[in-house]
Amino acid sequence: MFLNINTKKLNPYKVASHKVWNIKNKDTILKLDWNESTIPPSPLVKKAILEYTETGFFNWYPNVDNNVLREKLAGYSGVNVSNIEYFSSSDGLHEYIIRTFLNEDDSILLISPTYDNFRAVAESLGVKTEHFRLNKDEGYSFNIKALMDNISTVKPKALYLCNPNNPTGNSYSKEEIILLSETFSDVLFIVDEAYFEFNGVTVADLVNSFSNILICRTFSKAFGLASMRFGYAISSTENITGLQKVKNPKSVSAIAQISALAALDDLAYVYNYVEEVKKSKVIFISELQKRNIKVLQSTCGNFVFVDFGLNCVDIINDLENNNVFIRYYGHILGAENMVRITVGTIKQMQLFLDILDSILICYND
Amino acid sequence: MFLNINTKKLNPYKVASHKVWNIKNKDTILKLDWNESTIPPSPLVKKAILEYTETGFFNWYPNVDNNVLREKLAGYSGVNVSNIEYFSSSDGLHEYIIRTFLNEDDSILLISPTYDNFRAVAESLGVKTEHFRLNKDEGYSFNIKALMDNISTVKPKALYLCNPNNPTGNSYSKEEIILLSETFSDVLFIVDEAYFEFNGVTVADLVNSFSNILICRTFSKAFGLASMRFGYAISSTENITGLQKVKNPKSVSAIAQISALAALDDLAYVYNYVEEVKKSKVIFISELQKRNIKVLQSTCGNFVFVDFGLNCVDIINDLENNNVFIRYYGHILGAENMVRITVGTIKQMQLFLDILDSILICYND
Question: Where does the Aminotransferase class I/classII large domain start and stop, copy by copy (chains A, B) (predicted)?
Answer without folding.
Answer: 29-354
